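Bit of a strange request maybe. I'm writing a small parser for structure token strings and I need a real example to test against, not something I typed by hand. Could someone generate the tokens for this chain?
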Amino acid sequence: MRLHVGCAMWTYAPWQGRLIPHPLPPSERLRAYASWCNAVEGNTTFYATPAVATVESWAAQTAEDFRFVVKLPKTATHEQRLRGVDLRPFFTAMEPLGPRNHAFWIQLPASFAPADLGVIATFLYRLPRGYRYAVEVRHPSFFDDERSARQLEHVLGRVGAEWIPFDTVTLFRTPASSYAERDAWMKKPRVLRRTRALTATPIVRYIGRDDPQLTVAGWDYLVKAVVDWLAEGRSPTVFLHTPDNVDALTLARRFYSDVAAVVPELSPLPEPLPVAPPTLF
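Reply from user aminoacidic:
Good idea to test on real output. This should exercise your parser:
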């Protein structure tokens, strides 16, 4: 019985010296993050494919059961729009992660509509087997039109892929009250909530508010969904976001604790590294 929780990044300036030891060399930053969470979103790969040596460093800093959900490059998803894509160099670069590579994350722009399901199906069918794949769609029709949702589920089910929902309901529940929230309102998708798992390894991205209390109040439904998934033998991964992400690390652990309060069989998360070395006085 495994639950994994994480954030959108492992290096973030507001965490340094407050939650994560600082300064740290690049070869130690992920290790420090992994003392807080047991999963992370691989967003950097969206912008550039890292060198193999860089990915080897990621693997060296994490345990084998740590989960990376690695985003496919934007050249494939946003520029070439899944057509004529050669991902062989990308998959080769990710090989050092081994079992840590939990799933390849295919985040599609909102312009991908139900009319593009044939393109999505062809792309998924041509991907190499042996990996997990998870698709994030943002077009509203996939969420508010039952027929479109079922068609997408059918396409994903044919290749055993998961549907990643990005839950923004809490973000949009009340008016924005900070610059970060206003920025998120302009950039994040406003779609209906989804809790239907297609595979044994569901993945959810949840974004709350800059006020931790509002973030916690909005995730009650997700705690219940995760408890149900665990009871069904599934192994979910949940990523916690807020508009400014200042408290995302502590919120990820708080979410894990809320689930563990209902499912005490869950193994505890690691103990975070001390921010500063102990002193004699």
